[in-house]
Design a protein that fits this description.
alpha/beta, 5-stranded parallel sheet, 5-stranded antiparallel sheet, 15 helices
Length: about 425
């Protein structure tokens, strides 16, 4: 199969990698190249094609390796792989790169349900440190004064706005937004279907028919064409004998004739796949489940006596040093939240934001490892009050905070602590 490499993609990677191997006096070259764009557009695969064409060796790290039950492991892994790649450059005398796939999935903060852990902080800090000192990367517990060879780092992801802002600033990371244009799509899809004899005109019509689909759609479409033959194969030998015939069979692997790859058949199967996508979008079952579950779990606590003093002081959680030792008395109303807390809820919702609620015990408070109350985001005042009362009751003796979320920008705009353990001010 003849694969297509986008000229823009090849140019960007070749320039960035080569520039990091040159000694340009007085020029500060960003060590990291961040390749981002919507899902399924072949970012990682285009990188592999460029590496193969340039004869570059790659050390891989997956975004899934950037979390661990042991604090510090992912940061140490990044340093270790970086040093190993620098050693490969020295020993083999050829270009090598360190590539981190899906960095935003492993180190990004998407919404209130994504915990910002110690490992997340350390991964961001480690990448920043390496970008600033690419020839002096040490492992914990040891120190080697010998300068390392500079190793270009490539990272891929869908949404880099979820990453720690100082990491992606200019000077540390150069950004490349990969959004294949029509010529790129025609070239890539033509490479996918080249063994099947599709002409350029047929490829262009196929791309035009499914112009809103990502590159991976066309790869999945080619795979789907074989389903009919595999289905006939299963029926011929019997479903009970499939395992014996396919795995460790003395007859050798089954052979299939070339399927029907004419354009009309491809478009027919493609439309079925689009319908399946639409069915997923229309179901919205998770939203329905969350609404039902939220309503079922809300059990407001009994109202306290009028003179009961409660620790509902509001402080800014982004600055734990700003704390108020005073207490407020509950006002008589339909809810046992203070009027100040109710006004905070109303103010957040009035600006079009959604509300989430998080809690943390005293030990995890020091590391900022907040956990989301299992209620999702809320966009109604009565729901927010009920959910907050439920969380305050369930997590009595812990910190509880109110979070305002901008659904369009997918970022936090407000974080307010409304309960502290036993009314104490955390040290």
């Amino acid at each position: 199969m003849s694969y297509y490499i986008s000229p823009r993609f090849l140019d960007k990677l070749a320039v960035h990698i080569t520039k990091n191997y040159l000694d340009l006096p007085g020029v500060r070259v960003p060590l990291i190249l961040g390749i981002h764009g919507r899902k399924g557009e072949g970012k990682s695969f285009q990188c592999e094609l460029v590496f193969e064409r340039m004869g570059i060796e790659v050390t891989h790290i997956s975004g899934g390796e950037l979390e661990s039950p042991d604090a510090g492991d992912p940061a140490r892994l990044i340093r270790l792989r970086y040093r190993e790649t620098a050693e490969l450059i020295r020993v083999r005398g050829k270009m090598c790169v360190l590539m981190i796939n899906d960095l935003d999935a492993g180190a990004g903060r998407f919404d209130e349900g994504t915990q910002y852990t110690v490992n997340t902080q350390l991964v961001n800090a480690t990448l920043m440190n390496i970008a600033d000192n690419p020839t002096d990367v040490q492992l914990p517990g040891s120190y080697d004064a010998t300068p390392l060879h500079r190793v270009p780092i490539l990272v891929t992801g869908n949404d880099f706005s979820t990453l720690y802002a100082p990491l992606i600033r200019d000077g540390r990371m150069e950004k490349f937004y990969w959004n294949p244009d029509r010529d790129d799509k025609v070239g890539i899809v033509g490479g996918i279907f080249e063994p099947d004899g599709l002409s350029r005109q047929e490829v262009e019509k196929l791309v035009n028919t499914f112009s809103n689909q990502a590159i991976d759609f066309f790869g999945a479409l080619r795979s789907r064409i074989y389903d009919e033959q595999i289905r006939n194969f299963i029926h011929e030998i019997g479903i009970e004998r499939v395992s014996q015939r396919v795995v460790n069979s003395t007859e050798g692997p089954p052979q299939f004739r070339k399927p029907n790859f004419n354009l009309s058949h491809l478009i027919e199967i493609g439309n079925l796949m689009v319908g399946e996508q639409q069915q997923v979008q229309n179901s919205q079952l998770v939203d329905e489940y969350n609404r039902l579950n939220r309503g079922r779990n809300y059990q407001p606590a009994p109202p306290p006596p009028v003179d009961t003093v409660v620790p509902n002081q509001i402080t800014n959680s982004s600055n734990p040093s700003q704390r108020d030792n005073g207490h407020q008395k509950h006002h008589v109303s339909d809810t046992h939240l203070t009027l100040e807390t109710q006004e905070q809820i109303r103010e957040i919702l009035s600006q079009g934001y959604k509300i989430a609620i998080e809690h943390v015990d005293e030990r995890r408070f020091r590391t900022g490892s907040w956990q989301s109350c299992a209620i999702g985001t809320i966009d109604g005042k009565s729901d927010a009050i009920s959910a907050l009362e439920s969380c305050l009751t369930e997590y009595d003796g812990e910190y509880v905070r109110l979070v305002g979320i901008d659904p369009k920008a997918k970022r936090r705009v407000v974080e307010k602590i409304i309960q502290r353990p036993n009314g104490k001010v955390a040290s």
